[in-house]
Amino acid sequence: MFRQTVYGSLLLAALGLQAGDTVKIAITGPFTGGSAPMGGSTRDGAKLAIAEINAAGGIQVGGRKMKIEAIERDDEAKNERGALIAQELAAMGDLAGVIGTVNTGVCLAGDKHLQEKGVTKIICPAAGSASMTQWANKQDRAGVKDSSIFRFAAHDGIQAAMVVEEAINRKFAKVAVVFDSTNYGVSGRDDMLDQIKKQGDKLQVVAQEKFNIGDKDMTAQLLRAKSAGAQAILIWGIGPELAAISNGMAKIGMKVPLIGGWTLSMSNYIDNAGKNGNGTLMPQTFIEEPITPKAKAFIDGYHKAFKVGRIPSPVAAAQGYDAVYLMAAAIKQAGSTDTRKVKEALEDLKEPVQGVIATWNHPYTKWDAADVTTHEAFRREQVVMGMVKDGRVVFGNDSDRERLRKSATTATPAKTTPAKTKAAPKKK
Amino acid sequence: MRRILLLRGAELIVFAALAAIPLLVVNPYALGLLTLLAIYGILLIGLDVTVGYLGQVNLAHVAFLGLGAYTAGLAVTKLGLGMGPALAAAMAVGLLLGGLLALPALRLEGPQFALATLSFAALSTTALNELESLTGGAQGLSLSRPPVFGHALTPPLFFWLCLALMALVWMLMRNMLSSQWGRAFEALRDSPIATDAMGVGAYRHRVAAFSLGSGLGGLAGGLYAFNFQYLQPQSFNYDLMIILLLGVVLGGRKSLWGAFVGASVIVLLPNLLSNRLLFQIFSASGFALALAAGLRGLVKKITRPFQALAPVAAMGLLVVGGLLVENTEDWRKAIFALMLFSVVVGLPEGLMGFLSLFLAKLFRVPQAPLPKPSDIETILPTHEADGAPLLVLEDLRRHFGGVKAVDGLSMTVRSGTIHGLIGPNGSGKSTVVNVISGLYTPSSGRVLLRGGALPTGSLFRVSRSGVARTFQNLQLFGELTALENVMVALKGVYRSPLPMVLLGLARQEERRAQADALCLLDRIGLRDQALTRAKDLTYGAQRFLEVARALARKPDLLILDEPAAGLAHPDVVQLIEIIKRIHKRGISIILIEHHMDVVSELCHTVTVLDGGKVIAEGSPDEVKRDPRVMEAYLGQPPEPGPSGTSDPSGAPVPEPA
Amino acid sequence: MNPSIIGQMAVSGALMGLVYALIAYGFQLTYATSKSINFGQGELVMVSAFFSLTLMNLGLPYWAMIPGGLLFGALMGLAVERAGVRLALEQKSEGWILLTIILGLFFFSAAENLWGRDDRPFPTPISADPIHVLGVDVTRLELSVAVGVLAIMGAIELFKRRTLLGKAFEAVSADRDAAELMGISATRTVMLSYALSGAVAALAGILVSPITTVGPTMASALILKAFSVAVVAGLDSGFGVVLIGMFLGALESLASFYLGSGWREAPGLLLLILALAVRPTGVFGKAAIRKV
Q1: Contact B253, B48 (CB under 8 A)
Q2: A417: which of A197, B153, C169, C208 lies 20 to 30 Å off by Cα?
Q3: Cβ contact (<8 Å) for C91 and B119?
């Protein structure tokens, strides 16, 4: 008991000490462990943006300039930690908002605490569909009336649609669906199967193979796919296991393309697959090519600040960076650090926000439980197909590069009415 | 009285204070932590049963947490059960599967046991992950708390529910673990063989302990499900298991308080370390503590230098690192590791083991008083021996591969006699004893007790038939006190069924057992050391304690396996006295001994073995003069003349070392 | 089913199983002398691999790096012995279980911060292109793992049998107290065993990294399998781990092919529990007679 009171009083003291003249933004995610490259890149991207804003004097809140204070919490990709951290953040009371989370499970275990207290959160850089659909209408129950949870990621629906579309465009008929056994992989599988159906059942799924985190030998899965005659592998997973797939394919002489989620652009895939990774395709929101001055400044800034030659996950870093700018814009517009007002401002951002991925023009609208895209920032047009080429991700399609270069300067089309369809328009 | 008041008072204060927190502080985060603390309290109390009491590295506990959680979750979502039945189902699954897992794991110890449990945990995660249609697989299972009596459980109400359950578990477990059950668990850890030989039943107690611990794991799992309301199979992985294990050891094994403190550490520490200021306070005070404790240990010479210095070095590293490293959040695991390292090295009995010593001194908590010893007549009533054959061995054989350790042995032990069994090393004495007492199954032949067949191949069943034994290589329950060693073996005292024990309604027989055991200790002169741990007794005292423990079985036949081995002369004299007194109460004895003077003084009949066969039988004097005996001992036929008849006064028969 | 596919599965799996066997052998070395094992062995594999990678990044060629890596592994082994095992052994407690786990946790966190959290490739001069042998595709890289594993195990076994120091090792393994009476320092022998075990872990890291990549979590999946192999084969079984390791590896491959990849580990785990129930001291372990 004695310990208990000591903890309690220390806790209160610490909370008291933190109250100051800053805007508090919490950054959460897995900073240690297997998902750390993503969580860490997001955090570092976000911190880069915070450093820039603070260097410029901070955010204009009401009458005065306030600096941003980042509160970092490592959820270790564990649901239990995620839930506790969410409770802690929800209890802080003076938090302007939360940015982060990679793992869908962590969202499902923790976000309800933030939602209950109305704390604004921008899920970034990833998390599967369930992290948003948990608030939406379902067959058996109605969704929440108002949600303070936003997402800033190319949601799996868009990505899966693009992956399937790419396979169809390339005239494949038989594909193998390969995924990891985590929530992320399994929901990716469901999205892809769903999209195959939606896009007219043009692909025949000849094998569904699963692998575990940490697996090094993928021969069994690949042989099954090979003997079933798969012409392409549609893959959903995270991390070095993806490289093990590419290397395993080279070993058994399986020369079919790998098409999958954006995580295929992470350095732990590209480096470890080496030349076996060439030609792998994946949807991207950001490509580490200095196509615009803004992108160049971001890439150079990141390399310098964190002493790396290449960003572990450029997509995650860029999204973390842009998410901070969105949050900052909302705080400025709200003229307050009250997280509820920030939420309202975020739903109705008047001025376009120039980010590194795009210039965000009214990215979110008022929550509608029948349509989660109200709280989704990314549209199909902000996502491009990337391709691995000699250790880098390049644009898979030159027209995408031109389109992005243009859109970065002209801003995204404002979203006034919620987009109704998630299925992406057909590519040429 | 003062002791009870202090101990119960402390429990009451802590639980009351915990229960009051939600009334005073309105902070959902603090409430979340406290709820998790209560759940982990139950979980660790369960884990402590196997890790602390059974002394096994159990890596399956996390699986029971997961299975319990999923059971409760599925019971609510698929079957529409209420919270009460769901929790009961979660606990039942733990009890059942825990018992089942104990079966193949029964023969395993140490690393093997750890691996078997680890495999079970991995299997259950795989199953939860793969049975997608039932569990939702990796996508997880969302559930909501069902209302109780029509009321939705708000966070404070749910916390009180968890706390109340923990208090209940605490009370029941305290009653159980301080009864014969708890002693049996500990006995099992120190010597499974002796546990069986004392008629306690290693098998069923091990299954019971494992099942019980796992049941608590299942219950905690049910609460876990209702707390987080979202489950994923991967949450219940090896990492969490390691944290739980560390929690039990950090807090202090074999202690409810230890489990509670361990739960506090593993729940609160990682969350508090996120805060830089708190971290610096912790590391600085930890360093000061390590320095003070280390210096004290070194000056008083009660710790080894390494034990004193390593924690100081570790905490010093923490303080320096805290100043150098900008982002302590990144190093959280290393920080956690350094703190744990300091505690495990510096305080091997765990935080609570250390604190309880300190607190006991501070509040002058007295030792529990002992009752008055019972009258020996009520425990071992004297009865007249009739001289009829008590134990009959017929053509007994036991072969190990090609070695014929016992090879066609027949002998009869008559009631009321002290029957010596001697022979050179390797002659098969110990094997005979091990066959009679049930450790080995005979290859062939019969063992009869009072004309009926004695069970073979089971220490436990032989012990229950009225044959008790001591062990040549001491098999005491080292961590138990002398008194508890005897209490474990006491026959015919423990009659209350388990529910009575759990509810604390069996205190009467506990007092009775203490009194009886104290009486037996008194007979061997160890009454003053009743509360000393067996492993801390002198060697001689340990030998006597073996005898007292065997007597507690109230046997018809007592087998003493080299009771005088290694004893100094005064102790031998005392031993002879003790054996004579036992014999006077009408108990028949088989005495295996090398000391010829002991044999000569005590035995009525002596059987001499060599090469697994009887080579002579008769009174001590007769066998000493038997030429075959001398040949067996000296390796050659005796020269006729004075050297042939050894000193009749009883110098030990020479034997090869 | 197509025999060449079965062959391919079995061979791929068995080659992976050899890595389990090598790490399992590291467990055996320390268990023999001290009846203790390093639960943080996986972290030793990982930090040694990272260290070797750093050596190569500093410009050392692959073959010159290997002795450096092994030496580092041996030093780490000694550190574990000193900090985590010796005290517990002196006190005859089982504290080493926790202490080695804790040290592993520390190494893990240190490696995350010193070398980064990302998985990285480990360059090697040995080709990863497949060669076709008897209808089965293997790479030279995989064969090099097999050669390396058998070579170091052979070398250590030879050392134990042929050299004086090695015989002291065997003596302490057989009977610690008797060896001490003969003037052999058990403490030093235990140190030697931990150093050897560390070097074996380092070699495992160097051999497997080109295939699995180097990262903080690279060994967490390997280590549990290696532990299974060591215990199922018997913690005193010597080359028994090779057979069990290859068997388990092949079984996993075949199970994931026939039962579905999610159930990959299930048959192995079930067999393991059964094997332990039938032979608690391991398939190739020496059965002990209960003596009292």
Answers
A1: yes
A2: A197
A3: no
State the Cα–Cα distance between residues B223 and B161, nearest whole angstrom: 9
**Domain boundary assignment for chain B:** 1-15+49-131+139-164+192-236, 265-364, 380-634
CATH of domain B380-634: 3.40.50.300
- Segment C31-45, tens digit of pLDDT: 888 888 888 899 999
Instruction: Provide the ipTM.
Output: 0.87
Quick check: C128 contacting A, CB < 8 Å? yes
Nearest CA in chain B to A106: B230
DSSP codes, B201-270: -HHHHHHHHHHHHHHHHHHHHHHHHHHHSEE-GGGSSHHHHHHHHHHHHHH-SS-HHHHHHHHHHHHHHH
Q: Give the residue, B508 or B87, on which the prediction is more confident.
A: B87
C123 in A contact zone (CB under 8 Å)? no
Structure token pair of residue A137? 């209408």
- The pLDDT assigned to B61 comes to 94
Nearest-CA distance from B427 to chain C in Å? 15
Chain B CA closest to residue C227? B115
How far is the C-alpha of A226 from the C-alpha of A212, rounded, in Å?
20
A244 reaches C (C-beta below 8 A): yes
Read off the pLDDT of residues A349-362 as tens digits, 9 standing for 90 and up.
888 888 888 888 88
Query: C3-122+132-278 in CATH: which number?
Result: 1.10.3470
CA distance C21 to chain B (A): 16
Q: What's the longest Cα–Cα distance across chain A? A: 70
Global confidence as pTM: 0.86
For B582, residues 6+ apart whose C-beta sits below 8 A from its C-beta are B547, B551, B558, B589
- Taking an 8 Å cut-off on Cβ atoms, the answer to whether A214 and C221 are in contact is yes
A125: preceding bond cis by omega (within 30 degrees): yes
Determine whether the interchain pair B271/A79 forms a contact, defined as Cβ–Cβ distance below 8 Å: no
B549-559 burial by CB neighbour count: b if 16+ within 10 A, else e? bbbbbbbbbbb
Cβ–Cβ contact A16 with B under 8 A: no
Residue C247 confidence (pLDDT) above 80 = yes
* AA identity, residue A186: V
Chain A contact for C277 (CB, 8 A cutoff) = no
Do A183 and B277 count as a contact with CB atoms less than 8 A apart? no
Closest-CA distance of chain A to residue B222, Å:
15
Compute the nearest-CA separation of C261 from chain B (Å).
10
Q: pLDDT tens digit string along B426-470?
A: 888 888 999 999 988 898 898 999 888 888 888 899 998 999 999
* pLDDT at residue number C54: 93
CA-CA distance, B200 to B493, in Å (whole number)? 12
Residue with tokens 């059974």: B54
Amino acid at residue number A189:
R
Q: Is B439 on the interface with C (CB under 8 A)?
A: yes
Is the pLDDT reported for residue C65 higher than 70? yes
Per-residue pLDDT band at C291 (split at 50, 70, 90)? low
Mutate to test the interface with A, among B132, B163, B230 (most CBs of A within 10 A): B230
Q: Kindly report whether the peptide bond that precedes residue B104 is cis, defined as omega within 30 degrees of 0.
A: no
Categorize the per-residue pLDDT at C289 as very low, low, confident or very high, splitting at 50, 70 and 90.
Answer: low
With beta carbons less than 8 A apart as the criterion, state whether C33 and C50 touch. Answer: no
Rg (CA), chain B: 29
Check if A229 contacts C (Cβ < 8 Å): no
Contacts of B193 in chain C (CB under 8 A): 290, 292
Q: Of A28, A122, A127, A117, which is closest to residue A81 (Cα–Cα)?
A: A28
Give CA torsion, residues A353, A355, A357, A360, to 10 deg.
0
Q: Which residues of A touch C224 (CB under 8 A)?
A: none
Chain B from 131 to 160: CB within 8 A of any C CB = none
Share of chain A above pLDDT 90, in %: 21
- For residue A193 the two structure tokens come to 């199967």
